[in-house]
């Protein structure tokens, strides 16, 4: 279990400010979802939290330790980051690609401890990849490959998971099952931060939703507060009607 505290985080590159004074908490057992228009700064914020983008001002702490000061090996034991467009350059088998997720625990694919093998097998099954374990990743469809990357992140089995649009390439059934997997992780105590463009999925699964615009956090609240016509108009410049019949706010584009 781990807690992430982000305080007044600013990221600048050249003359551009990608993230401006962002502050939020990600506690153990929480699923927090970031939404916002293209270019709002969501990925930049997540990359900075993950320690892969230099922070200009502010701090990002994990259990009180400054993430930027952690050695990569220490950080990898605490936090997994699934980028928006992950890539593995070699034509390796699906199972070996997922096994890469066990590197932070000292595993190598040709010498897996029983705990490593169990984590890999569970991630493969959870991501509906059992029938593809021996396929080369270069032969997979876009959605199948996306599920391999998600499985690799799940196999890390670390306290904090950051995932940048993990379900964008998935069909509705796999979108729901992956979001449910993330929810299950939080129920076991993990802290999960996800970027999503699907507002209905965000509303259904999030404990909190962070709305970003122009590099700033505009709102950080529950789904009912964020998925409202006023806030969605401010964040995205579109009109929505919101239906609450299913127990969570479901936005529908209107006009
Ligand atoms: N190295 C850079 N130099 C200049 N501008 C950059 C750089 N990296 C990112 N940006 C800009 O910063 C802004 C935020 O980018 P970011 O990738 O964080 O957006 P995002 O909210 O994740 O968008 P999307 O929904 O399209 O993935 C964008 O306008 C992008 O063009």
Automatic annotation (TrEMBL):
Keyword Chloroplast set for record: no
Gene Ontology MF terms in the entry: ATP binding; ATP hydrolysis activity
Domain ABC transporter, chain residue ranges per copy: 4-239
PROSITE patterns, alphabetized: ABC_TRANSPORTER_2
Keyword Ubl conjugation tagged: no
Function (record text): Part of the ABC transporter complex HmuTUV involved in hemin import. Responsible for energy coupling to the transport system.
Stated name of the protein: ABC transporter ATP-binding protein
Organism: Sphingomonas lacunae
């Amino acid at each position: 279990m781990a807690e992430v505290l982000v305080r007044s985080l600013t990221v600048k590159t050249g003359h551009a400010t990608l993230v401006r004074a962002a502050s939020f908490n990600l506690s153990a057992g929480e699923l927090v979802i970031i939404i916002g228009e293209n270019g709002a700064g969501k990925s930049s914020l997540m990359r900075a939290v993950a320690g892969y983008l230099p922070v200009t001002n502010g701090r990002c702490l994990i259990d009180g330790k400054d993430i930027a000061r952690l050695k990569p090996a220490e950080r990898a034991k605490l936090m997994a980051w699934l980028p928006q467009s992950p890539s593995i350059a070699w034509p390796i088998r699906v199972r070996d690609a997922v096994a890469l997720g066990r590197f932070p625990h000292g595993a190598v694919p040709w010498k897996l401890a029983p705990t490593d093998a169990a984590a890999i097998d569970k991630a493969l099954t959870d991501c509906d990849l059992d029938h593809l374990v021996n396929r080369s990743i270069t032969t997979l469809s876009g959605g199948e490959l996306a599920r391999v990357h998600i499985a690799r992140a799940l196999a890390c089995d670390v306290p904090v998971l950051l995932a940048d649009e993990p379900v964008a390439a998935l069909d509705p059934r796999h979108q729901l099952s992956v979001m449910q997997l993330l929810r299950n992780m939080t129920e076991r105590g993990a802290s999960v931060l996800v970027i999503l463009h699907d507002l209905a999925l965000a509303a259904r699964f999030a404990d909190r939703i962070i709305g970003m615009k122009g590099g700033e956090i505009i709102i950080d609240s529950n789904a009912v507060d964020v998925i409202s016509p006023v806030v969605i108009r401010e964040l995205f410049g579109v009109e929505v009607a919101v239906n609450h019949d299913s127990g969570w706010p479901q936005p529908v584009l209107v006009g």
